[in-house]
Write a structure and sequence with these properties.
Layout (H helix, E strand, L loop, with lengths): L10 H29 L6 H12 L3 E2 H8 L3 H13 L3 E5 L7 E5 L1 H21 L5 H24 L3
Helix pairs in contact: 1-5, 2-5, 3-4
């Protein structure tokens, strides 16, 4: 028999929802900490890695596009790009059709760093996923993908 905390929500459902929320949060936080530790010897922050990763998929993105993709403000993305530019990893270039828009491009030396970061990331993921079979990984990915799309749908369509 299911106990209820109020008339509409069974206690076991609420307990599961809380547990799942905490697990997702904890795994995400711990993964970020582990990733930071792995990147430290490469002298790259996680935020810088994300900029480089997005540019590796679509070189020449605008600063505004990067800000949206990384869920950062214009000032924050500007500071990240400043630091990456000073390190010689990226360069800004005015857009050919709109000089007010800056596009960000990878410099040749960043490609070597990205390759190293991908190897570090791969080794870390192997360690994190140790003991999980293909079916478990597929089920987890499918579940998280559905949750992500439900959240995006809510954020894009729900009234406050």
């Amino acid at each position: 028999m299911t106990q209820t905390t109020d008339m509409s929500v069974p206690a076991t459902t609420t307990d599961w929802e809380l547990r799942l929320g905490f697990l997702i949060h904890d795994v995400s936080r711990l993964r970020r900490s582990a990733f930071d530790r792995c990147l430290k010897p490469l002298n790259v922050t996680r935020s810088q890695w994300w900029v480089l990763a997005y540019l590796s998929r679509e070189d020449g993105m605008t600063q505004s596009q990067l800000a949206v993709e990384l869920d950062l403000g214009k000032v924050a993305i500007g500071g990240l790009i400043d630091r990456l530019e000073k390190s010689g990893l990226v360069r800004r270039q005015a857009d050919a059709t709109d000089r007010r828009v800056n596009r960000v491009f990878l410099e040749p030396q960043s490609k070597q760093l990205i390759a190293k970061m991908r190897k570090v990331s791969h080794r870390m993921n192997e360690r994190i996923l140790n003991g999980l079979g293909e079916a478990e990984l597929e089920a987890t990915a499918l579940t998280l993908d559905i949750m992500k799309h439900n959240l995006l749908d809510y954020l894009n369509n729900a009234e406050p």
